[in-house]
Amino acid sequence: MGEVFAFIGFDPELFARYAPALLSGLWTTLSLVAISTPLGFALGIPIALARYQGGATTNALAVGFTGFFRGTPLLAQLFLLYYGAAEFNGALKSVGLWWLFRDAFTCAALVFTLNTAAYQAEILRGAMAAVPAGQTEAGMALGLGRAMINRLIVWPQAMRLALRPLGNELILMIKASSIASVITVVDLMGATKRAFSGSLSFELYLWAALIYLALVEIVRRVWNALERRWRIA
Amino acid sequence: MSPLGPLAWGASGWGDEIAAGLWLTVRLALATLPVGLAIGFGVALMKQSRLRVVSGLGELYTTVFRGLPELLTIFLVYFGAPRLVGDISGFAAGLIALALVFGAFSSEVLLGAMRGVPDGQREAAEALGFSTGAAFRHVMLPQVWRLALPGLTNNWLVMLKDTSLVSVVALTELMRASDVAARATREPFLFYLVACLLYLALSIVSSFIAAWLERRAGRGIPTAGRA
User: Fold this and answer.
1) Of B83, B162, B189, the CB nearest to A202
2) Which residues contact B131 (CB under 8 A, 6 or more apart)?
């Protein structure tokens, strides 16, 4: 058995030593994604609405927000809010928000939320804009108000169109969450880096790669199933 | 000292260091582009192969390098290279890793574009006496290019931002130069904000160039925008 392991480059002793650390890192990765992606979706809705039918000011604000978070690297955003916020710790303490920036995990969750909100807002805006105008007009002819038209007519159709790109965004978030390791969060990537510096065993990176690929594959399959279910008959 | 004093040029400020980092970022991205495009093109052709083994390998390549976090790909290349070919520089590791990722994403774009050009175009070229190679170069390629441009622009913008990740393997590009300045001056907010704005500027400039290229590639094609 030992020879087989050696042949495929798998070291059971190494596995026994570092698997728990990697698993706990995986849990942190999943928590980061599970917190940021839904919060980003919730934040993305008003931003998408501001882009879809907001006034000049709200539209400009939404364009600025999405432009900044989509046009700059996530790593730069993370540094700006994590290390940059320390300069304003007095002000942040006085408004009771310092806890959000002080801890690497919560700060990463905050930055990921803002970042994915920008991407999800663009997806939702595009999906809403892709619903044919005749649908809205039919709603108006029925005497529905704008909020009702959005909620009952545009939104359900837009969500179907947005499903696929939202799944892609979830996959991108899983991958991007590894960047949190740069500001000392011990996610799967961070745990792998630590284990590597302790053992100098390159295969640890290959395990991490397999775990990330498995995560992405699971999301892809779940999303394909969701799409089959929600397909317009 | 004025609030922008730390950004001064020369020995008193960090302006020239940041500019050097920016220039290295631009060079890394520009050097990655042709390599990544070549990989993307090769993988797209593999996926079109009638041999199941070849097309399967193309699919496997795309699944792996689209699915791995870019940061992990950079580490895999940086720490994996010494076992295969010997130590490599941060620039080389970054270039190879980013090109592998760019190749995976752009192969999908190029495959879609190749399928988007009707087969009749190739047949017409061959009927006119073009050789297979000449038909590909003069008839197919310009049309594939036009269809692929918007997708490739997206790939480029993503890769441009991903260059910041190469800072973790000790390459002093824009992100790391800003990081060094931020720590030395204890002005993290200023320097990271400047880094963000410079990346934003690179994205905006890229978008203008892409729009110009798209207009050029679409010469003579009627669109909804212009009758």
Assistant:
1) B83
2) none
Q: Which CATH architecture has domain B14-217?
A: Orthogonal Bundle (1.10)
What is the structure's pLDDT at B96? 96
CA distance A63 to A73: 17
pLDDT at A233: 53
Chain A neighbours among B 71-90 (CB < 8 Å)? Answer: 71-72, 75-76, 79-80, 83
- Chain A interface disruption, residue of B62, B72, B158, most A CBs within 10 A: B72
A5/B contact by beta carbon, under 8 A: no
The amino acid occupying position A157 is Q
Alpha-carbon gap, residue A217 to A167, rounded angstroms = 11
Give the pLDDT of residue A10. Answer: 72
Q: Class of A2-230 per CATH?
A: mainly alpha
Among residues B87, B135, B105, which one has the least CA distance to residue B36?
B105
Chain B residues in contact with A209 by the CB 8 A cut-off are: 64, 68, 72, 76
Give the pLDDT mean for B157-168: 96
Report the complex ipTM. 0.90
Domain ranges of chain A: 2-230
Nearest to B192 among A79, A202, A216 (CB): A79
Residues 6+ apart with CB under 8 A from A100: A92, A106, A107, A110
Please report, for chain B, the start and end positions of each structural domain, with discontinuous segments joined by +: 14-217
Q: What is the pLDDT of residues B25-43, one digit of tens each?
A: 999 999 999 999 999 999 9
- Count Cβ atoms below 10 Å from residue B4 Cβ, excluding itself: 11
Q: Is residue A104 helix, strand or coil?
A: helix
**Average pLDDT score, chain B:** 91
Place of tokens 């942040």: A92
- List, for chain A, all residue ranges whose pLDDT scores fall below the cut of 70: 1-9, 232-233
Q: For B68-104, how does the pLDDT look when each residue is reduced to its tens digit (9 = 90+)?
A: 999 999 999 999 888 888 888 999 999 999 999 999 9
Q: What is the pLDDT of residue A89?
A: 86
Instruction: Write the CA distances from B129 to A42, A207, B55, integer angstroms.
Output: 59, 54, 30
For residue B1, the model assigns a pLDDT of 54
